Amino acid sequence: MSPTRARDGDPRGGGDGAAARRVLLVDDEQGIRAALGQLLEYEGYKVRAEANAADGLTAFTQWKPHLVFLDVKMAGVDGLEALKRMREKDDSVPIVMISGHATIQTAVEATQLGAYDIMEKPLDTDRILVTLRNALAHLELKEENTRLKEAIGSSDEIVGESSAIRALLEKIEKVAPTPARVLITGENGTGKELVARALHRRSPRASAPFVEVNCAAIPSELIESELFGHVKGSFTGALTDRTGKFEQANRGTLFLDEIGDMSLAAQAKVLRVLQDGVLTRIGGSKPISVDVRVIAATNKNVEAEISAGRFREDLYYRVNVVPIHVPPLRERKEDIPLLIRYFVASIAMRENAPAREFTEDAVAALKALDWPGNVRELRNTVERLLILAPGPAITRADVDRLVTSRAAAEEKGGSSLLQADTFESFKDAAERAYLLSKLRQFDWNVSETARVIDMPRSNLYKKIERYGLSREEG
Question: Using the 8-state DSSP alphabet, how is residue 230 labeled?
Fold first, then answer.
């Protein structure tokens, strides 16, 4: 076995991080230690060699290698016993067994004990390098997953390293410990709910309930009952007493999502609760005290809603003590590679499947898009690519075929509208294209789509049926 120059003109051959990687060699043959050590040092790795398992175990504990080559047959403690002890200390380090006379039984036992691979002497240089790089690539993937999990745990799934996200997280850290009410603004799909949950988890109320109300998803005639509760017999269908969301969130946080869609009558009652800390259930007469921190969110221009008479100005000033704006994805495109890795890891974890890589060209193609649906749209796109792309990695060709070609088809379809023979056919084609685009944007969530486009849900279902729209088109 003799050293060979790494391919592509890189004398290290171990990748960009090779020089930082530590490899431990444990073998009682001095010739093996010398030859293998020379090869690995030539490839750019830091190497430590030990002649017996006892010294190897000490080095494993103190030096903390990234990978181990471990001989099977050694005097005293043999390699399989050393493998078992190393696995007890740290089960994340890849350990490659080497043997002069490996048997199937030895290979099976080594695998059962957690060996990454087993190689026979005399060692083949090419196989050593391939095994080494594959093992370290596997280790890097595990480390990346760990970093992503830590990022999730530390930021409540607000993933990003851009200046816009750092500023957002800094504001959350400052505001969360205070009792101040917060109004979160931002486009659909930017992560307003994640911000609300992050504020709650970092607040003194973290051990109390976090209760969410989607004001746009509840019919106006039911929103007051949902928020304040009702007593039995107060209206048709009120068969029992019901506790409202304000009471459920007592001593905790109430998140009023899409507060801009709340009816004026409900707004007036919310204002009174915020002023007095007291509510009365519908049909009841007993005042109920509540201690609730309210966090609200909307995708609307609240000032414009106030001017149009659809939102109370006094309520706006009550909930907007601290404004927090969540930036759209197009303003923080540098976060897209990290978000892609996060979504790949989380989907792989959910599906209990291996994570697949996105090539640099594929990531660049995704960064070039506008993302009107923001992070939600990116996540759906990543999942679509993982499901439909055929190869081991997601490539630029996959993005062109499964993402950008569809966008181009939509653009072409928009221009073809001008070819309509009559004004009525133009209106029908335009409405069909618009509804299909919006349904795709919200992953065929009919309720959410109807809310965003301000159309009764029953009407949207009728139009879906009229135009023969189907998810397969999306």
Answer: B
- Cα→Cα distances 207→58, 108, 199, 201, 203, Å: 44, 49, 13, 8, 9
pLDDT in tens, 77-108: 889 999 999 988 888 899 999 988 767 788 88
So what's the pLDDT on residue 145?
Answer: 64
Q: Is 439 within 8 Å of 460 (Cβ atoms)?
A: no
Beta strand segments in 148-300, E = 182-185, 210-214, 253-257, 278-279, 288-289, 293-298
State the CATH architecture for 163-327.
3-Layer(aba) Sandwich (3.40)
Work out whether the CA dihedral 106, 108, 110, 113 comes out positive or negative.
negative
d(CA 386, CA 380): 10
Query: What does each C-alpha distance from 263 to 39, 205, 310 come to in angstroms?
Result: 73, 28, 8
Inter-CA distances, 30 with 59, 170, 189, 249, 450, Å: 17, 56, 61, 69, 74
Residue 472's pLDDT band (cuts 50, 70, 90): low
Torsion sign, CA atoms 161, 166, 168, 169: positive
3-class SS of residue 431? helix
User: Hey, which bits of 398-466 come out as E strands?
Assistant: none
pLDDT per position as a tens digit, 19-37: 468 999 999 999 999 999 9
On the question of a common fold for 7-135 and 163-327, the answer reads yes
Supply the angle between the helices 163-175 and 192-201 in degrees, to the nearest 10.
40
User: Is domain 331-396 in CATH 2.60.40.1220, yes or no?
Assistant: no
Measured CA to CA, the distance from residue 77 to residue 38 in angstroms comes to 26
Q: What is the CATH number that goes with domain 7-135?
A: 3.40.50.2300
Give pTM, 2 decimals: 0.58
Question: CB neighbours of 181 closer than 8 A, spacing ≥ 6?
Answer: 274, 293, 294, 295, 296, 318, 319, 320, 321, 322
Determine the pLDDT at residue 13. Answer: 39
Supply φ then ψ for residue 459, to 5 degrees: -65, -40
